[in-house]
Amino acid sequence: MNTRLFLAIRGRSLLAVFGLLLLAFFAYIWAGFFAGEKIVPEQLFAQAVKETLASKSFRYQVEVKTENQGILSQVGGEWMSPNLIHLQGKMYNTPVEFIQIGETTYMKDIWTKKWLALKGDRLGQAQLYVMELAPLNFLNFKSVGDIHYRGREKSEEGKMFLLDFRPRLHQLPLNEKDREYQCRMWIDVHDRRIRQVFLQPAGSDVKNLPTIFLKFWDYDQTIKIEPPLKS
């Protein structure tokens, strides 16, 4: 065999072997990295809530429904620290739109399309409205137990950690009595902030009890929220 041809074939073989060894090495390191990933569910939960509550702004969606009555509330909103909120959507099949600037809440009349200004707490005791305007209140748990890490999940928003746990809420929708919920929480792998939350009443006989779905995005983005124009 020609010496040059032999050396060329040998060189290519050694290069191929070296490439395979290098690939196997990186595969070993990669697998070892994930195998050694240590997630402490309680610590991840505490960090996610802390990082989310510390956010200066975000956009969000809230959906509240029951098995018997269907969708009760389906709204989207924008929130800026400390007390700027814009919310619109449907509650009980009725279009709603609110803007909150400090202690003043503007509510759009569904018939005249004019804006009404409500000072202080005049938005009142409509608890569902209050919760929709303050979605972070859904994360104000009275107690949290049985936290489990369920691995990772890839979504349109990126890679997520999944946690399951059983909380009790400080504020309850629809004047519901104190009840334990089953919660699944999606936490962004990179910034450790909450992206989605699904709350479902635990136990039996829950057909008339609300389930709650929350979604958060655009954290710390500049969001412009101003009083409505006079009509």
Instruction: List segments where confidence is low: pLDDT < 50 over at least 5 consecutive residues.
Output: 5-9, 28-36, 124-128
How far is it from the N-terminal to the C-terminal residue, by CA? 93 Å
Strand order of the largest sheet: 6-5-4-3-2-1-11-10-9-8-7
Q: Just name the CATH architecture.
A: Clam
Helicity, as a percent range = 10-25%
Q: What fraction strand?
A: 35-45%
Question: What value does the Rg take, in angstroms?
Answer: 26 Å
How many β-strands, per DSSP?
11
Classified by CATH, the class is: Mainly Beta
**Broad shape:** globular
Number of H- or I-type helical stretches: 3
Helix-strand pattern: HHEEEEEEHEEEEE
Mean pLDDT equals: 80
| Total separate domains | 1
Explain the overall architecture.
The protein is of the alpha+beta class. The protein has a single domain, classed as outer membrane lipoprotein receptor (LolB), chain A. Helices cover 23% and strands 42% of the residues. It contains 3 helices and 11 strands. The chain has helices spanning 3-35, 41-53, 127-133, and strands spanning 57-66, 70-80, 84-91, 94-101, 104-108, 115-119, 141-155, 158-169, 181-188, 194-201, 211-217. Strand 4 (94-101) and strand 5 (104-108) form a beta hairpin. The longest helix is centred in the first third of the chain and has 33 residues, at 3-35. The protein is globular. Residues 5-9, 28-36 and 124-128 have low confidence and may be disordered.
